[in-house]
C-alpha cells in the first residue's frame, strides 16, 4: 500500500490512536487539535480551532491531503457546543479543502441520528429523523458533507468505551444498575475497534475497493442496558444497591452487518469481550 498523506481533524483519544496506527502503516499523518499538548511522534501537530476560520486559516497546511478524517469531539454537551464542533467546524474545513480534491473525507458521526426507541433493528438504510439536538446537529453535519464535491464516508459510532472511558464501570462499582423500567437496548463499541474500523476503511479505499457512503460502528451484540450492568456487577463482585434510569440514546438494535460484510473483524465483538479486557487490566 502506497504511503498516503492524511490529516486527522480532532486528535483527542480516538484521533490520536488512529493517527498512531496509520503512521505505523507507513502513512504521513497530521493531527489538528486545540490543545498545545504535544502529539506522539511521528504525528505532525497542527494547533488551531477549526470552529474559528481565522484560527484554522493560520494553521492549515497548504498541501493537498489524500485523506481527511474529521473526528472532533464537542467541548460540551449542548446544542451550541455541538453546532460549533460539528457544523461550523466542518464547514470551515470543507472551505479549506476547496480545490484540493482529497481522495476521500471520513466523518465520525453518531447513532444519535436514529430516533428509534422501541427496540427496532437499525441499519444504514433506516430513515433518520432525529428529534433531540445531538442527533439533529450530527445529521446536519452529515448533509453538509454529502453536498461536498469529493467522495465522503460517514461512520456512525455508538457507546464508545475503553481505557479512560469507564463511566459505566464506575457507576456499577458504586452500586448502581439500570432499572427495569428504563432498560433500553444499548449499542456500544470498544475504542480499539473504532480505530480498527476506520483504519480498515482507509485501507480498502487505498486498495481501490468501493466504499459505501455510510457505516454503523457498533459491535455485534446490542443488549439491554440492565443486562450489561448486572453482568458488570457480577464481574466486579459488587452487590447492586440502587436501580436508576440509564441511557439517553433511545432503544434500538444497531446492525454491524455492513461493516462485517466489508471484511472487518472485531477485536471485541461483544460488550463482554471488551469489558472483560478492561477489567483484567484494571
TrEMBL record:
Pfam family, one: Epimerase
Gene3D superfamilies: NAD(P)-binding Rossmann-like Domain (3.40.50.720)
Domain of life of the source: Bacteria
Domain NAD-dependent epimerase/dehydratase: 7-198
Classification via PANTHER family: NAD(P)-BINDING DOMAIN-CONTAINING PROTEIN-RELATED (PTHR48079:SF6), PROTEIN YEEZ (PTHR48079)
Protein name: SDR family oxidoreductase
Species whose genome carries this gene: Zooshikella harenae
Amino acid at each position: 500500500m502506497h504511503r498516503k498523506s492524511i490529516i486527522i481533524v480532532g486528535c483527542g483519544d480516538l484521533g490520536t490512536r488512529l493517527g498512531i496506527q496509520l503512521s505505523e502503516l507507513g502513512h504521513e499523518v497530521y493531527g489538528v487539535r486545540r490543545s498545545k499538548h504535544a502529539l506522539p511522534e511521528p504525528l505532525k501537530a497542527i494547533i488551531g480551532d477549526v470552529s474559528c476560520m481565522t484560527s484554522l486559516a493560520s494553521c492549515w497546511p497548504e498541501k493537498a491531503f489524500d485523506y481527511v478524517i474529521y473526528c472532533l469531539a464537542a467541548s460540551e454537551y449542548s446544542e451550541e457546543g455541538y453546532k460549533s464542533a460539528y457544523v461550523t467546524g466542518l464547514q470551515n474545513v470543507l472551505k479549506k479543502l476547496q480545490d484540493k480534491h482529497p481522495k476521500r473525507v471520513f466523518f465520525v458521526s453518531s447513532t444519535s441520528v436514529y430516533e428509534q426507541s422501541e427496540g427496532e433493528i437499525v441499519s444504514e438504510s433506516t430513515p433518520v429523523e432525529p428529534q433531540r439536538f445531538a442527533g439533529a446537529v450530527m445529521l446536519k453535519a452529515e448533509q453538509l458533507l454529502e453536498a461536498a464535491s469529493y467522495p465522503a464516508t460517514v461512520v456512525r459510532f455508538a457507546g464508545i468505551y475503553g481505557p479512560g472511558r469507564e463511566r459505566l464501570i464506575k457507576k456499577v462499582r458504586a452500586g448502581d444498575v439500570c432499572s427495569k423500567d428504563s432498560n433500553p437496548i444499548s449499542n456500544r463499541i470498544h475504542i480499539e475497534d473504532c480505530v480498527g474500523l476506520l483504519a480498515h476503511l482507509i485501507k480498502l479505499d487505498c486498495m481501490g475497493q468501493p466504499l459505501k457512503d455510510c457505516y454503523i460502528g457498533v459491535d455485534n451484540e446490542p443488549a439491554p442496558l440492565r443486562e450489561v450492568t448486572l453482568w458488570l456487577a457480577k464481574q466486579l463482585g459488587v452487590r447492586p444497591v440502587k436501580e436508576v434510569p440509564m441511557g439517553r440514546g433511545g432503544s434500538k438494535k444497531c446492525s454491524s452487518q455492513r461493516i462485517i460484510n466489508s471484511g472487518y473483524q472485531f477485536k471485541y465483538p461483544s460488550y463482554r469481550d471488551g469489558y472483560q479486557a478492561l477489567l483484567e487490566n484494571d
